[in-house]
Design goal:
61% helix; Glutaredoxin; alpha+beta; 2 domains; single chain; 181 residues; elongated; 4-stranded mixed sheet
Length: 181
């Protein structure tokens, strides 16, 4: 969204520059030379903003948490690697779930920390048995469990990247305290 605003602002700036250039070249030669310098500067700023917006948008899609979709397989891997499981309970209709996907799960710190977990996404609309087992009453809910399925920590609702990262550290600390790992 932010990159769309930057591009829109840059396009507006470019259009204003073109109008100023046209007015200045029509009215006065000396004023036109000064305005050409201003417009050149505006074009450089415009291109810089566009490059920043494009790079940010390009890099946004490359970092993301690696998710599994099998509960049994996640528990098996968690036991083998002695790691906690981070379960994201979501639904396609859940706006805050999509916000977690686009903002939080693409943050570099969150992605890096997620490598210390076995990451599992559970569709709350189709996996009713697991939803009932863990008493999931609202979405999004992120549950941290050990490899036996015992709950370690829970997050209910959307968290921005910084807050989510801190919750991950709490969950990891609780896991290490309970397992001695």
């Amino acid at each position: 969204m932010r990159s769309i605003l930057i591009v829109s602002f840059a396009a507006l700036l470019f259009e204003v520059s073109l109008v100023c250039l046209w007015v200045c070249t029509v009215n006065s030669k000396s004023l036109g030379i000064r305005m050409r310098k201003v417009i050149s500067l505006c074009i450089v700023v415009l291109l810089s903003l566009l490059l920043v917006a494009c790079e940010k948008e390009r890099s946004r899609g490359t970092l993301q948490v690696a998710w599994m979709n099998s509960f049994e397989e996640a528990l098996k891997i968690a036991k083998e690697k002695n790691r906690p499981v981070m379960i994201d309970f979501y639904a396609d209709w859940c706006g805050w779930c999509h916000r977690l996907d686009s903002d939080t799960y693409t943050d570099g710190n969150v992605v890096s920390k997620s490598k210390e977990f076995v990451n599992l996404k559970i569709d709350a609309d189709t996996e009713r048995e697991i939803v009932q087992r863990y008493r999931i009453t609202g979405l999004p809910t992120i549950l941290f469990i050990d490899y036996t399925g015992r709950e370690i920590h829970r997050i209910v609702g959307y968290k921005p990247p910084e807050a989510f990262f801190k919750e991950m550290e709490v969950a990891l600390g609780s896991f290490k305290n309970k397992t001695g790992g």
